[in-house]
């Protein structure tokens, strides 16, 4: 897929780029309350994403008030809130600036009047948009396709080669009717995925490469899994067959393995007809794509790191590393059971931190060093046995912080930036209670990661098959591990590199 496949990015304003959808709802709620009506969730279709005139007519029909007077009052209430309370949505400015750097044209397409849009443009930066279309600029506004068609005409682009970013069903209907590909980032009301429509929690982590992939979804991609096999899988009956079933059903291309018990990587690769690398008795990597180099220490101990360089079908080279860090002392236990303060928890991470830094040094040592050489993207996966500073802000967990400082990004948190809504726990699908028999709940945490440098994240998720029975009754589980796996799909075209 070429970089020119994406011709433009078209952005809704309220609730998408700036947090004004709630301001609009509050403005309508206040006007309605003055007329003796309380808004409910059932009123959202006539409020969210709608032009002022529509909501005024709807409210007039239910209260008997004058429609034109209501429209004027709604304008005033909303404009006052916008002037004092406009806040960019997470990731919005970063994406707009990245598109500007890469020369991708952008348009603001809103059902708000010109006066409100101009106020928001002053906040975001007018230079970030080549075109703006408001409710004052077309005969019909959203959900009709007119606003998006007008923006495409002004930019001279094909709607089918544009991504429209919306937060409401009304806006999605408008963009899809115009023929645009849609990225939905719901603000107040949920939006379902559909053909030609992708749903993300927010714009955080969305890049120009992500948008290009939406326009041409059949472009080259790489799906990477990290998986702790749990004593090679030997705790579960028919573990090798169950491992193969997981790998084939998930459609992954590369798997970074921990706790291989020596032979797992070779046996899995031979059964799949794949390539493999074994490092010591605990680490391995299997790959659908050819391995062109083996990186790191082939005789690494139980804890440490190992890597390979693969060449994908599209010709892109990627370095894949797998790491397993020491599990003692285990921070979540010390926090939950011993009540240690953050300073002590951080101090007790020094062994893992040293192991990770050794891994990061090896990664840097194997990177192409010739002047002008193209950077090879890096993916580091593994069982870190440490929580993330992105998940638990009460403790600045140093292991993931060090990885971030080296330029590695957490693919799961890029795809799911809210740890409350999407915790992504990987420890443990079989341990609900602590195994010491005390009956204490087992701390659930995200300790397995797919980190990367130089790629664009298309999707990331945890994986557990079936409903595993809890320890110790695990022998017949379909899921042959005590960890959840993490699977991330990356875009591979040259435009995906950062």
TrEMBL record:
SUPFAM superfamilies: DNase I-like, HAD-like. Residues 419-445, 461-480 are annotated as: Disordered. GO terms for molecular function: hydrolase activity. It comes from the Bacteria. Keywords: Hydrolase. Coiled coil: none annotated. Residues 225-483 form the Endonuclease/exonuclease/phosphatase domain. Residues 432-445 have a biased composition (Basic and acidic residues). InterPro entries: Endo/exonu/phosph_ase_sf, Endo/exonuclease/phosphatase, HAD-like_sf, HAD-SF_hydro_IA, HAD_sf, PGP-like_dom2. Pfam families: Exo_endo_phos, Hydrolase. NCBIfam families: HAD-SF-IA-v3. This is HAD-IA family hydrolase. It comes from Streptomyces caniscabiei.
């Amino acid at each position: 897929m070429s970089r020119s496949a994406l011709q433009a990015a078209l952005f809704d304003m309220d609730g998408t780029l700036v947090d004004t959808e709630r301001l609009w709802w509050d403005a309508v709620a206040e006007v309605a309350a003055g007329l003796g009506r309380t808004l409910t969730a059932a009123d959202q279709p006539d409020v969210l994403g709608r032009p002022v005139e529509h909501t005024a007519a709807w409210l007039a029909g239910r209260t008997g008030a004058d429609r034109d007077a209501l429209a004027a009052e709604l304008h005033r209430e909303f404009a006052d809130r916008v002037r004092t309370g406009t806040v960019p949505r997470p990731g919005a400015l970063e994406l707009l600036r990245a598109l500007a750097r890469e020369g991708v044209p952008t348009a603001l397409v809103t059902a708000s009047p010109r006066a409100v849009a101009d106020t928001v443009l002053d906040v975001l930066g007018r230079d970030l948009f080549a075109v703006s279309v408001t409710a004052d600029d077309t005969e019909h506004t959203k959900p009709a396709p007119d606003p998006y068609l007008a923006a495409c005409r002004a930019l001279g682009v094909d709607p089918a080669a544009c991504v429209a970013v919306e937060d409401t069903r009304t806006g999605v209907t408008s963009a899809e009717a115009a023929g645009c590909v849609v990225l939905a980032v719901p603000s107040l009301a949920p939006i379902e995925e559909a053909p030609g429509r992708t749903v993300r929690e927010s714009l955080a982590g969305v890049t120009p490469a992500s948008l290009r992939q939406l326009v041409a979804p059949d472009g080259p991609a790489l799906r990477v899994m990290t998986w702790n096999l749990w004593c090679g899988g030997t705790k579960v009956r028919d573990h090798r067959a169950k491992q193969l079933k997981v790998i084939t059903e998930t459609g992954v291309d590369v798997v970074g393995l921990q706790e291989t018990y020596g032979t797992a990587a070779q046996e899995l690769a031979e059964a799949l007809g794949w390539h493999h690398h074994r490092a010591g008795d605990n680490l391995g990597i299997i790959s659908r794509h050819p391995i062109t180099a083996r990186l790191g220490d082939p005789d690494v101990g139980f804890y440490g790191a190992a890597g390979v360089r693969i060449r994908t079908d599209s010709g892109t080279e990627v370095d894949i590393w797998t790491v397993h860090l020491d599990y003692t002392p285990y921070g979540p236990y010390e926090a939950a059971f011993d009540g240690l303060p953050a300073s002590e928890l951080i101090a007790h991470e020094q062994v893992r931190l040293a192991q990770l830094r050794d891994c990061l040094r090896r990664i840097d040592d194997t990177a192409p060093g010739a002047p002008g050489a193209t950077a090879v993207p890096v993916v580091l996966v593994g069982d870190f046995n440490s929580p993330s500073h992105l998940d638990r802000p009460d403790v600045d967990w140093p292991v993931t912080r060090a990885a971030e400082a080296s330029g590695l990004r957490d693919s799961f948190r890029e795809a799911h930036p809210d740890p409350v809504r999407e915790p992504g726990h990987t420890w443990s699908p079989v341990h609900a209670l602590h195994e010491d028999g005390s009956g204490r709940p087992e701390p659930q945490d995200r300790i397995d990661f797919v980190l990367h440098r130089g790629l664009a994240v298309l999707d990331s998720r945890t994986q557990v098959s079936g409903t595993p029975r809890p320890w110790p009754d695990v022998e017949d589980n379909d899921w042959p591990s005590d960890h959840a796996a993490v699977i991330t799909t990356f875009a591979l075209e040259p435009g995906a590199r950062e």
